[in-house]
């Protein structure tokens, strides 16, 4: 483990969407997620992590140490089992180390120090495990990993307005569908968007937890790059035009941090320039950082 980060980091991510659905809710007909009481839009932390994973996967493919554990159509237990094979541990035979037991308690599953070895292997080879952690206790069992990088839901600065649009496809799927419509091969559908929304999410990076997973300076730089460019390779007509607008990083001077995070986040204000018209662009907002309220020892980095 080289160049493990030795400082705590907290950050604010500002991103926006124009004429799109940033994160549909499958339990609500894929409408944009929102806070039912306030009307503010929501984007889940899982959605944001997915975009980071996708960016890293596009950049590095399946190349270690930047492989992605949680990826589309993957079978997680098979991936954990591959870790044991790479370590030459046969989980169907008795442990080779007597301290792990004289016999295999559960065939196909690691035990004793084998689990820690498998856990370390997974951290070393998979970027998203080093960053976000993972539950690896299923199947062959590689324990659990608590990741140093955590994100909150993104929440829109202002309430959002969800619009539904009728869309038409000038074709049908089968001959029987065509016959039912008398040769008028048009099918109708619905599409949900919001005209504009500026979202704010909070992030936290723990140096003590980074030392446990091996999250290092190169991983940190890749995280910043991913957060800035994650929408550039995630374009979709359904999601409209999404962009990262600002990344504000608070770098502490110590392992445990110098101040409570809310004091840092309270120093950043995002406000609309005019209340007389609805916001339709990032330029309709002002982002201000009150650096006089930030304690000494904190380095503010704006990207």
TrEMBL record:
GO biological process: maintenance of CRISPR repeat elements
Coiled-coil zones: none
CDD domains with a match to the protein in the record: Cas7_I-C (cd09689)
Region (Disordered): 89-115
Domain of life per record: Bacteria
Pfam families: Cas_Cas7
Protein name: CRISPR-associated protein Csh2
